[in-house]
């Protein structure tokens, strides 16, 4: 689980004459003076200066007085974020043999070679699982397990020879546990909290009590991450395929009438393809893996 809270407030003033020959802008993170052709806030086409507004500005106030244009810019934002990641990989291995699992992908990384050439190496990311089980008895399993969860992080990307190579945000663990059949053990846990407060202010004017707020830009960001990794080994045996059903077993392609007129993504199965009692191909109900012996 990852939670984030962000609050942002910035106020800026811009001043420019109607002729566009003189202008003032404060805290260039919100606005800046630019040539008329490069600016995105209207002004005289023949003026040497106009105002360019940052995309973070979400409100402004503009008025003319005595041949001068005053513009007030406001960047105000409050955002809350919540990310839930739940991965339950299931993998079968022979006692004493290593097994691995990856649900994710690979991204290219340029690697410099001799004579100015560049080779491409691929790095894996996603949900990964490696483990080596050893069955000690009928109800005891020793398991060396190494789970990892990684995702691309473009905020830490680097550029090399025209390539943009993202960083990786990784959470991984490796340990050896001994459990009974079906028992669970939390092998790793992480609680991380970060808070960041950034303030930009105009010299002297930003230090004035109360009125100094008009000459300051402030940003507060807080992130909380909670991570738990749980291992559950099972002793398994081969399944009777005649009793197993897959969600795709009873899929029927829609005909033109079902697809175009009724808007259905699946056709109506005929009597021969209809699932028997207690078996269904729908994904709306219970689905997923089942352990042998479960009814």
Classification by helices and strands: mainly beta
N→C terminal distance: 32 Å
Residue runs with pLDDT of under 50 for 5 or more positions: 276-285
DSSP strand content: over 45%
* Mean pLDDT level: 77
**How many whole angstroms does the radius of gyration measure?**
30 Å
Helix content: under 10%
Shape, per Cα inertia axes:
elongated
- Number of E strands: 13
N-to-C order of helices and strands: EEEEEEEEEEEEEH
Main sheet record: 6 strands, antiparallel
Determine the number of helices (DSSP H or I, runs of at least 4 residues). 1
Mind sketching the topology for me?
Elements: E1 2-17, E2 23-25, E3 31-34, E4 50-53, E5 59-65, E6 68-83, E7 99-112, E8 118-137, E9 140-160, E10 163-172, E11 175-179, E12 185-201, E13 216-231, H1 256-261
Antiparallel strand pairs: 1-2, 1-6, 1-13, 3-4, 5-6, 7-8, 8-9, 9-10, 9-11, 12-13
How would you describe this structure in keywords?
295 residues, mainly beta, five-stranded antiparallel β-sheet, 1 helix, 2% helix
């Amino acid at each position: 689980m990852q939670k984030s809270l962000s609050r942002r407030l910035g106020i800026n003033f811009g001043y420019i004459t109607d002729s566009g020959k003189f202008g003032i802008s404060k805290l260039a993170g919100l606005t800046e003076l630019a040539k008329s052709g490069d600016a995105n806030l209207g002004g005289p086409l023949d003026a040497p200066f106009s105002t360019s507004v940052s995309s973070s500005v979400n409100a402004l106030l503009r008025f003319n007085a005595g041949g001068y244009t005053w513009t007030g810019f406001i960047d105000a934002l409050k955002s809350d974020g919540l990310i839930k990641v739940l991965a339950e990989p299931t993998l079968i291995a022979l006692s004493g043999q290593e097994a691995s699992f990856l649900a994710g992908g690979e991204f290219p990384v340029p690697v410099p070679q001799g004579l100015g050439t560049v080779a491409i190496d691929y790095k894996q990311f996603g949900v990964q699982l490696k483990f080596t089980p050893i069955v000690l008895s009928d109800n005891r399993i020793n398991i060396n397990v190494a789970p990892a969860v990684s995702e691309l992080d473009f905020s830490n990307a680097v550029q090399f020879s025209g390539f943009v190579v993202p960083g990786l945000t990784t959470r991984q663990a490796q340990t050896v546990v001994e459990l009974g059949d079906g028992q669970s053990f939390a092998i790793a846990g992480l609680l991380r909290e970060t808070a960041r407060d950034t303030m930009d202010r105009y010299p002297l004017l930003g230090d004035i009590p109360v009125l100094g707020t008009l000459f300051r830009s402030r940003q507060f960001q807080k992130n909380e991450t909670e991570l738990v990794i749980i291992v559950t080994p099972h002793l398994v045996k081969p399944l009777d395929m005649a009793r197993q059903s897959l969600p795709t077993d009873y899929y029927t392609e829609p005909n033109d009438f079902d697809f175009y007129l009724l808007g259905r993504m699946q056709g109506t199965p005929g009597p021969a393809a209809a699932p028997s009692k207690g078996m269904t191909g729908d994904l709306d109900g219970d689905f997923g893996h089942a352990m042998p012996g479960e009814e």
